[in-house]
Amino acid sequence: MHRPVSSHYRIAGSALALLTLAGCGSSSGGDGDRPTTAPATTRAAAEDKGPVCAGEAPRDGLHVLRGGGFQLPGGGGVQYAGARADGTTREATLRDGARYESGQEQWTVEPGAQVTVSGHAYTVRQICSYRVVLEPKAAKDKAALAGAPKSMKPSGGSADAPLCFTTNPDVLAAAAAGFPAEGEQLSLVGNGGVQRFPTGLSLTVSYLDTATGTAGIAANCAAIPVASYEHVRVGNPVEFAGVQFEISEITEQAVRLTRKGA
Length: 262
Prior knowledge:
With about 260 residues, this protein is mainly beta. Helices cover about 10% and strands about 40% of the residues. The chain has four helices and 18 strands. It has helices at about 15, 140-145, 160-165, 170-175; strands at about 10, 55, 60-65, 70, 75-85, 90-95, 105-110, 115, 120-130, 130-135, 185-190, 195, 200-210, 215-220, 225-230, 235-240, 245-250, 255-260. Strands 1, 12, 13, 14 and 15 form a five-stranded antiparallel β-sheet that branches. Strands 2, 3, 8, 9 and 10 form a five-stranded antiparallel β-sheet that branches. The chain has a four-stranded antiparallel β-sheet with strand order 4-5-6-7, with no helix packed on it. A hairpin with a 4-residue loop joins strand 5 (about 75-85) and strand 6 (about 90-95). The longest helix is centred in the middle third of the chain and has 9 residues, at about 170-175. The chain is globular, with a radius of gyration of 18 Å.
């Protein structure tokens, strides 16, 4: 039989390098299954011990995406650095700070856990393979996250924080409107280019490997790496700006994602 031609490239850059978040202390597992060598366009997602999500996400919870950080009210931040699933429950490794720096504190948490970041308390409401949902305990923190930005137009860099790190429904609606409709595909071309969206989010395919049928997708917003989905396969869920997608195809040229329902 004719073997499919494989391609594999990576994009260098500090923004992507710092998202290779190695656990320390209480280490997390997950993503340990080795990929198969079936053609990328027909490969199903690697078997996950599951569940995909544990816990219930509140409507106004803040979403910290896998491999990325979220800037919190008061100048602090939190990262979703690692995950583990045993078939019944999920755990997440959270790291202090919106972006990676050496020596940061980190915690291994389950749904319902309480964490304090920069003096602000949060409850871990949901842990998924692709996100962690936190709920602020203080009313003033909830109000700060839900506040309306001065402008709905991104200006670039850290000034876009009110558009990138928010639970404001108008901002989330504007972000969602920038993506294809439910059931349609978003195609991210794997040529090293950056695809930008209306509220400051940018997406880049960090690597494609058709031999293993895996790819990496990096997301940045307000000059902060907000997600780094590594080794994703067809069928894996991902999320950007509050919108959920499923990896539907990985080719030598692109990663295609199908938008899911709310």
